[in-house]
From TrEMBL:
Pfam families: Choline_transpo. Keywords: Membrane, Transmembrane, Transmembrane helix. This is Choline transporter-like protein. Belongs to the CTL (choline transporter-like) family. It is a multi-pass membrane protein. GO terms for cellular component: plasma membrane. It comes from Malus domestica. It is found in: Cell membrane; Membrane.
Length: 451
């Protein structure tokens, strides 16, 4: 814990030597309180305990299903493991490879990565939809139609936000220009842990599928929920680690050892990460649906749209206590997630950055990158399953999509952390010589557009 305390006090004593100036500039202290309430500490401990207990439960559960399948083989002869597992295991290997390559492209050429994500994602999603429709089962038809509609929405969204590409490329380039040392090692480690866990869950899904029972759907749902939460925690653990390093560099010009930051994150911040890994996706969906409803309603006062403003206001209030920007203060100051989210959101509002944050494309870029990799895995595994055993093709395609999506989000956590740290550090000291004109120029552009 000593290293975290040292990090929290760095801003009180650090002296910055920016390359653009000759004299030493002393950084004024920033009073950002750490959550020390008993209730907050208990909540973080509780979620940390729940997460580890859930990992133990899932492991035991999968082992039980596997042993059950081996013992009662005569009752599960309808299940063909040699035709079911290879496509899904291939999806895991494919997702790890493509995700790692994708984050490398993002690092080396942000412009190509952003343009590729917004152009390829709709095409690949549409291809998955066509594959599912071709399979021709009731579930695959429904899933295929949904995929095609999503592809159309992605295409329209890409056209709508295309004027923001230049700014998004600039921010991503500036914030990721000097990644922390050993970032690649952290990404590889995170991907390796994800591979092991996904292999475990794939074994459980296969054995749950082999069981002819009304409980089968429940078993698979539990495994998929475990996949979602665990992969979010792995992603956000990497995000918090990199956020801490980049924030301290942007804000105070200090360097933190990457290995030490990773150890501190796992040891002291897992509880806050577990909470944030649940809140951010849920509240993100709530806020997205509220904004979509508001855009649909416009200025209409009809009954069906009368609650649009109320819903949007509620969503905005909830997001204040659960947003991805809060992970920066979780890593830098060991805050509880809700407090960290509230502090960063309040700072954005005070500095007039809220509109800029709302229009930022980093989140959309990472999301569409995950969709694109998920679609690639779905096409590879789904086509394989369609050729060797058509009855498995629908579920294999859907599971492979989730595997690819979550794996890519893990690999893309570090660029997202760099951008988040850049915004948060800027909001706390806009006049710092460590920032160029990227954000001020964009703010002026938005103000001219509104005028």
């Amino acid at each position: 814990m000593a290293s975290l305390e040292t990090t929290k006090n760095i801003h009180m004593q650090v002296q910055v030597r920016p390359s653009s100036v000759n004299q030493i500039k002393t950084q004024e202290p920033i009073d950002i309180p750490t959550e020390t309430t008993t209730a907050g500490q208990f909540l973080r401990w509780l979620f940390k305990l729940l997460f580890y207990l859930h990992l133990i439960f899932i492991t035991i559960f999968v082992i039980f299903l596997t042993l059950y399948g081996l013992i009662f083989t005569t009752r599960t002869r309808h299940f063909r493991p040699l035709e079911y597992y290879p496509p899904l295991l291939t999806a895991i290997g494919c997702s790890a490879t493509v995700a790692f390559i994708w984050q490398w492209i993002t690092s080396s050429s942000p412009s190509k990565a952003i343009k590729a994500a917004f152009s390829l994602s709709p095409l690949l999603t549409c291809a998955v939809g066509v594959l599912l429709v071709y399979i021709s089962s009731r579930v695959s038809l429904a899933a295929g139609v949904i995929a095609i509609v999503c592809a159309l929405i992605q295409s329209l969204y890409a056209c709508w936000v295309s004027p923001r590409f230049d700014y998004a490329i600039r921010v991503l380039s500036v914030s990721t220009a000097f990644p922390p040392p050993k970032t690649t090692i952290l990404v590889i480690q995170s991907i390796f842990v994800s591979i092991l866990y996904l292999c475990l869950l794939v074994a459980g899904i296969g054995r749950a599928t082999a069981i002819r029972s009304s409980w089968k759907a429940l078993f698979i749902a539990v495994i998929l929920l475990s996949m979602a939460w665990t992969m979010q925690v792995i992603k956000n653990t990497l995000l918090v680690t990199i956020s801490r390093i980049k924030y301290m560099n942007f804000a105070f010009g200090t360097e933190i050892d990457t290995r030490e930051a990773s150890r501190d994150t796992i040891k002291h911040l897992t509880g806050s990460i577990c909470i944030g890994s649940i809140l951010v996706p849920v509240l993100g969906v709530v806020r997205g649906s509220a904004r979509a409803m508001k855009l649909t309603a416009g200025d209409t006062d009809e009954f069906l749209f009368s609650c649009a403003n109320c819903y949007l206001g509620m969503a905005s209030t909830l997001v204040m206590y659960g947003n991805r920007w809060g992970f920066v203060h979780v890593g830098a100051y060991n805050k509880g997630f809700a407090q960290a989210s509230s502090d960063t959101w309040e700072k954005f509002e005070n500095e007039g950055l809220k509109e800029l944050i709302d229009s930022d494309l980093t989140g959309s870029f990472c999301f569409l990158s995950g969709v694109a990799v998920g679609a690639i895995c779905s096409l590879v595994s789904g086509t394989w399953a369609l050729i060797i055993h058509k009855s498995y093709a629908t579920e294999v395609s859907i599971y492979a999509f989730f595997i690819g999506y979550f794996m890519c989000r893990v690999a893309m956590a570090w660029p997202q952390a760099c951008v988040s740290s850049y915004y948060v550090a800027y909001s706390e000291d806009p006049q710092s010589v460590r920032f160029d004109s990227t954000i001020p120029a964009r703010i002026e552009e938005l103000q001219r557009f509104q005028a």
